[in-house]
Amino acid sequence: MPAVSLLTAGRRGPRAIPVAVVVLTALTGLSGCAGPHYVLSRPLDVPTVTAPTVSVTRNVVLVSVDGLRPDAIDRFAAPTLQRLMREGSYSLLARTIMPSTTLPSHTSMLSGEPPDQHGVLWNNVTSAKTDVVEFSTVFSVARAHGYHTAAFFSKAKFSPLQRPGTLDYSQAPGGWWGRWSSERTVDDVRAYLQTERPNVLFVHLSDADAAGHSSGWMSNAYGRAVQATDAALAQLLVAAEEAYGVGNYSVLVTADHGGHGYGHGTKDARDVTIPWIAWGQGVKVGVLDEKIDTFDTAPTVLWLLGVEAPKSWDGAPVVEAFHALVPTAAE
């Protein structure tokens, strides 16, 4: 199949980002074919070292539930999230950054840095201040250490986090405002995991945020969206267990922001307070006492894999949630 360019939305419409090799694939079996699917190959200029032999796990599934308020988990009786909290470590008092909006918050979550360091202050490509932002992410660092990475975004605004050379596989809806349901996104993940085993798997689920904006945070419609997302999360865990094997992966579940009324983005506690849950391989059981910021998430993923985070990152791994690093056989 011939090499093509990765198309992503710029301020003036779609633009092409050249990569070493990008193979456009339909990936038969994926539900809902609207929007691009891309497989990103390893570029020649990315140094790769051997993966560490000491780690908590070789596989991390990181899930971001867009717009999930911590108090919504019990308010709307989300059984999967409640189970992960009961069987793992968690905090319902973690904090996101300002501005408490989707793209800046996810950039901090995945880069280990606050906005004044990574520079992404806009929330969609139409208001971007620049076309190219250079910063390290959990994907680029893990991949440089020989780990495979994949990301499933359910909104179209994440091009700064889909940089060529950092992801073995990445997908997102097309256009500027495209969005996929949590069910659709998890269906795509399940299809992907039938043949692939990424060591870092990021999954973004958007239903709660969409319902919050349309019907109000903590409304009945928002509650139904939380429950639908929880059901999709349950299916994701089934797929992960089938792919990695029982006890062979760790899960982190968090959110980019909360919300109140019909929006978010302020310093209001309902906007900036987020859940942070760890479950699976190497995880202790209990409530986390330490202060957790969203930019601690990326360093935690790397720590689980036995990789040192870049010294420039402000975040620190949430080691309280886990047992110590142990030797693990390389895959």
Word description of this protein:
The protein is built from ten helices and 14 strands. It has one domain (45-327): Alkaline Phosphatase, subunit A, CATH 3.40.720. Helix content is 28%, strand content 19%. The chain is of the alpha/beta class and 331 residues long. The strands form three sheets. A ten-stranded mixed beta sheet has the order 3-4-9-8-10-6-11-12-7-13, sandwiched between helices. A two-stranded antiparallel ribbon has the order 1-2. Strands 5-14 form a two-stranded antiparallel ribbon. The protein has helices at residues 71-75, 79-87, 102-111, 115-118, 138-144, 182-193, 207-215, 220-244, 269-272, 297-304, and strands spanning 6-10, 13-17, 22-24, 37-40, 54-55, 60-65, 89-95, 149-152, 169-171, 200-205, 250-254, 273-280, 286-287, 326-327.
Compose a concise summary of this entry.
The protein is an alpha/beta fold and 331 residues long. The chain has helices spanning 71-75, 79-87, 102-111, 115-118, 138-144, 182-193, 207-215, 220-244, 269-272, 297-304, and strands at residues 6-10, 13-17, 22-24, 37-40, 54-55, 60-65, 89-95, 149-152, 169-171, 200-205, 250-254, 273-280, 286-287, 326-327.
Low-confidence stretches: 1-46
Helix content: 25-40%
Q: Main sheet?
A: 10 strands, mixed
**CATH homologous superfamily assignment:** Alkaline Phosphatase, subunit A
Cα distance spanning the termini: 28 Å
> Within the CATH hierarchy, at the fold level, what is the topology?
Alkaline Phosphatase, subunit A
Radius of gyration: 18 Å
**Class by alpha and beta content:** alpha/beta
Q: Report the CATH C-level class.
A: Alpha Beta
CATH architecture: 3-Layer(aba) Sandwich
Strand content bin: 15-25%
